[in-house]
Specification:
This protein is 23% helix and 38% strand. It has 169 residues and is of the alpha+beta class.
């Protein structure tokens, strides 16, 4: 399959459905180029400051957090529905201990930025961080806090300008 540039809004409903049902695969790379992948189930896509933006949430305890902090880049990849088990593994295993690309037989492809695309995925959003902020415990709804943050470790919210959206055809 070839990778073809698309508008970031193309088939966005599918991207959001997959995020809600099995998760999307967020990739990053450390400063030496070593790739990592994690599953995300929270995010949003839209236009902010006149730019296309993918908003993702990453906890400071995650290996990916250090990579994004160091490089300011990430890629969001939309897996096929057949990759449900891969999404589960990438959400449960840490990149500190395991090369998840190797363990899950995923193929990294570097295109526009250092964070790779995953060749087995159907859609990709290459992003450069243009803003970030931390979820504020004091401002958080009590019910959300008890459901999502019982153990603390509140997310950092990354606003990634979508530099390129692409699909495999």
């Amino acid at each position: 399959m070839t990778v073809k540039d698309i508008a970031f809004t193309d088939d966005l409903e599918h991207t959001l459905r997959i995020m809600r049902s099995q998760g999307l695969l967020l990739t990053s790379a450390d400063p030496d180029g070593r790739p990592n992948v994690m599953t995300i189930g929270w995010g949003n896509v839209g236009t902010i400051w006149g730019r296309p933006v993918f908003i993702v949430y990453v906890r400071p305890s995650r290996f990916t957090f250090g990579n994004i902090e160091a490089t300011g880049e990430f890629t969001v990849n939309v897996p096929t529905e057949q990759m449900k088990d891969t999404c589960m593994v990438c959400g449960q295993v840490s990149g500190r201990d395991t090369d998840k690309f190797e363990a899950e037989d995923l193929t990294p492809e570097t295109q526009l930025i250092g964070a790779p695309l995953i060749a087995e995925c159907v859609r990709h959003y290459e992003c450069r961080v243009i803003h970030c902020n931390d979820v504020s415990d004091a401002a958080l709804d009590a019910e959300v806090r008890s459901q999502a943050y019982a153990g603390g470790d509140l997310h950092r919210v990354y606003y990634g300008e979508i530099l390129r959206a692409a699909a495999r055809r």
